[in-house]
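User: For my dataset I need records formatted as: sequence, then structure tokens, nothing else. Please produce one.
Assistant:
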Amino acid sequence: RWPRLSLLCAQCRVALAEGELCDRDGKHPVVRLADARGVEDLRAHVWGPIEVRRALVRAQRQARTRRAARLANAMAAGAVVLAGTTALFVFATPLIAAVGFGGGVFAAAAFQRARGLVHRSRRWPVRPRGARARPAGDPRDPVVAGTVTATAGRAQPPPFGGPMCVAYGLWTWAAGELTYCEQVTVGFDLAADDGRRIRIPPGRCRIEPPPAPAAARWTVVRYVAGRTPSHAAGAPFEPIPIDRFAVAAVRPGDRIAVRARLRDVPDPTAPASGYRDRPATVERADTVPTLLRSRA
């Protein structure tokens, strides 16, 4: 199973494991995604305090009322024109009838435009506020390049669907603002080019660089919405708004580089040796690893 990331830095919008603090600044507020209070705190960071949101809802309703009034006037004008041209289709010249038909087309176009405006106004009343900083690993940590290897049965599909992998990164945006970042690995080994074997344990990771964003698909939207179960579906002011997303995956056989602080630990997977032999060890990432992918 994928390690569970139940927390979120409200400033950087990076998902964290239980007990973790933000990489960028340990003083950043951290919210619990499954908790109603945590979701409300996150909503305040994205949309502002509840008083501001209530004022936005009132202004949004007033704007809808004005748009509906303009729509009704346009439809009434079109209806009058159409009613007046009913007889003209029979008795008047084709030119006058065409004018009446054009009025009906204009009314229909006005209706479609007003409906689109109302739909957009329901989407987001204001521009959501995204991440204020982008966490990064320590550039002084060593970088080791190699090939990803994984034990049988370790690779699995991401929770929102996709090919089997040993690590994935999910980024979401709304109105150009980064609203969520989830990067995690089930653990794998790296066969380094210099002959060493690097072990990446299950848990949070970083994947760089993120791919170009694309239009959000429903499986990703459903997964992100499920991260905050206390927020009712369709309710305004989503704690994690999304209109675009990007996914990066690391699979067995991929060529990557790993940046992390390493330390020797006993290797439980090594074959048993004599009691006089030195125990087999493996270099294990001792910090949150950064997985550097090729830009190609």
